[in-house]
Amino acid sequence: MILPQVKPWCRRAYSGQVSETLPTNRQLSRSILRLAVPALGALIAEPLFLLADSAIVGHLGVDELAGVGLASTVLQTAVGLMIFLAYSTTPAVARLLGAGRLPDALAAGRDGVGLAVVLGVLLSVAGWIGAPTVASLLGAEGAVHAFAVDYLRWSMPGLTAMLVVLAATGVLRGLQDTRTPLIVAGAGFGANIVLNYVLVYGAGMSVAGAALGTSLAQWGMAAVYVVMIVRASRRERVPLLPTLRGVRATARVGSWLMLRTLSLRVAILATVVVATAQGPLNLASHQLVMTVFSFLAFALDALAIAAQALIGKELGSGNKNLAHALTRRMIGWGVGFGVLTGACLAAVAPFIGWIFTTDPAVQAAFAAGLWVLAASQPVAGLVFVLDGVLIGAGDARYLAIAGLVTLVVYLPLLHLVRVAGLTGNSGIVWLWLAFGVGYMLARAATLGWRGRGDRWVGTGATRGGGTGRRGRPAGNGGAG
User: Fold this and answer.
1) In sequence order, what DSSP letters do the residues of 407-429 get, joined into one string?
2) Of 36, 186, 226, 276, which is least surrounded by CB within 10 A?
């Protein structure tokens, strides 16, 4: 059952009334953690699908593992670019919920799921047909090529389900529910392990079994979400078929968010290119530092998800003051988390390299990169939170433009690092000064400039006011 979890201090969001009394910092923190903690668990569960595949396939042989590794990279890239399905659905649903319009919120979620189905089918067909070509373009040959193609093709039936899960997760987040996605993700991960083991070893399907097992687990998760949304829609008398207008609206916002995500992917890929030019030692060290960065990003992403849901809801209810109060509180949490993790990283940097490698030179370069990462963590905390706040406010166009501007600033810095021809510790230090400090500071500047006033604040059921999906007045104010 999908029902908004209403706290006493925010019940006005569902009645359309705005209170001048702001909650205490303790109440704000509880509201943030109520969403962020389960979101963190769900975020950690998601990459475990591919990890489980790698662990099970790893015992088949080197060629099989290499093929799955290459195919997984393709899948992660495709699904990563489609993350806008969650990021565009969450604020849309949250705004309508905040305006006291649960039926329209469910309609917005339904349209987001509809868009996920359309994109999923198109990508699945293209992926099945183009799998051999993609594997060849990435340099796979012989047995590795064959296994990569098998894994990609048997993953395609589940790609649509993966996108439905993204959109449906956004619906629940918008309804202020991050516990259900945690439960569904945990159950899906457990089912994935069992299915993969049975199909790979019991049925003798090799890497195809691992891909099929993951596809079946994803369809199970998607089915749970669809049943929940259908039941809630019927209860609120919301038509089940998506509307063309609603799908277009989601796609329009999603296109800006996809451009934002693409700029992030380009920055990360360009950094890997420079690390590769510095030699195998630096590439290995960079990969380890990036792994730590990505792990810490889960916690910051959880705060960003809470920001998307809470800011969207409060702006939908027309409560600018509470939206600003939540933003200040979440910035404090993000920067505070960055200070804490930065101090911990700086303390353990010289001692944890042995966990990942036995090579002394890689350990030393890894430690050097971690020190730079430690120094940049408070900035990363600020960036992740502001990114979530602006997504929650529906400021997708600005985020896309800011992403491109930031990339224009970052690529010349990266070029300077490359032409310097640095290797070893100095190479990894300057590479991470460019990414962890230069790139993140540029993002902080563009996001902070936008968040300093009220230009990002648009109250009402939809950003900029207007009518809702059923043609009713948005209410609660106009454009901010």
Assistant:
1) HHHHHHHHHHHHHTT--HHHHHH
2) 276
